[in-house]
Amino acid sequence: MGSLEAERTTVGWAARDPSGVLSPYTYPLRDTGPDDVYIKVHYCGLCHSDLHQIKNDLGMSNYPMVPGHEVVGEVLEVGSNVTRFEVGEIVGAGLLVGCCKTCSACESDVENYCSKKIWSYNDVYVDGRPTQGGFAETMIVEQKFVVKIPEGMEPEQVAPLLCAGVTVYSPLAHFGLKKSGLRGGILGLGGVGHMGVKIAKALGHHITVISSSDKKKKEALEDLGADSYLVSSDSSSMQEAADSLDYIIDTVPVGHPLEPYLSLLKLDGKLILMGVINTPLQFVSPMVMLGRKSITGSFIGSMKETEEMLQFWKEKGLSSMIEIVNMDYINTAVERLEKNDVRYRFVVDVKGSKLDQ
């Protein structure tokens, strides 16, 4: 055990209170254990769930908090048991950094559903220390929660895939929705929604983007390649589209009615919830019963699904639509994300930022 003076530290940008304002923060990092990978962060995406956490929207935030869970970086050091990664390799890390490894979810390789999972930040690690995220110079992550980045993929492009990308890919894979020819809906065209359009189109699906206004119609159809666009407040268009979709990926992160969207589903259609919402959602049961429809949810994806999704993304030649910013812009980026003023994901150039000022 080293002395306090010799303890490894790093610099990140942390929120100190529910204002969510981030500023430089120096904190200790554990030494690289036998199963650990020590990573120099190059890029980290900004996700809507980061906003929920730094602003204590869910009432569970602990401060100081360094957010960020779409991490791409370079391996600086590996533990003695690590065989999959080498120093100098570019790797990724996502929302989880720990799990129990013994429950049915862990044994089924869906550790994202482990009841004892450890979040990459705003949680407590097995050593009793608070976890801190990717808006930082360096991180220590157990090898199980580190993924290889396929050769040739640009690191800044990969960052949003480690949460937003796998969040969409996982339910499509799990619910048998990868076959071509399906008709899908993407409700909400933000960071996750734009990934949904890209992945579903690459699977050969006919995709309808559903939004509350026609503000994003041009970009949905022309930039992202959606097949049609539906404004949810246009009752006649919604009526015409009734019983037309096999599934809807609902990415909206605030309370909203479900019934208008349930009406769009075919027999046995699925409404898949992905937005983190802290208020109850309501619907009348016949909307589900009379079409044997399902309201379900999905949470990020497993490590296996993450690696599978990255390979799929590379093979299909897809690209993320991102805006790269430096860390000194992060508080403005947070304000803009709150207003949905980003197309479609902020990615912080951590490596190119001065973190200590």
Automatic annotation (TrEMBL):
InterPro entries in the cross-refs: ADH-like_C, ADH-like_N, ADH_Zn_CS, CAD-like, ER, GroES-like_sf, NAD(P)-bd_dom_sf
CDD domains recorded: CAD1
Keyword Oxidoreductase assigned: yes
Taxonomic superkingdom: Eukaryota
GO molecular function: oxidoreductase activity, acting on the CH-OH group of donors, NAD or NADP as acceptor; zinc ion binding
Cofactors named for this entry: Zn(2+)
PROSITE patterns reported for this sequence: ADH_ZINC (PS00059)
All copies of domain Enoyl reductase (ER), residue ranges: 20-348
Gene Ontology BP annotations: lignin biosynthetic process
Keywords on record: Metal-binding, Oxidoreductase, Zinc
Family: Belongs to the zinc-containing alcohol dehydrogenase family.
The protein's name: Probable cinnamyl alcohol dehydrogenase
Species for this entry: Arachis duranensis (Wild peanut)
Protein encoded by which gene: LOC107467418
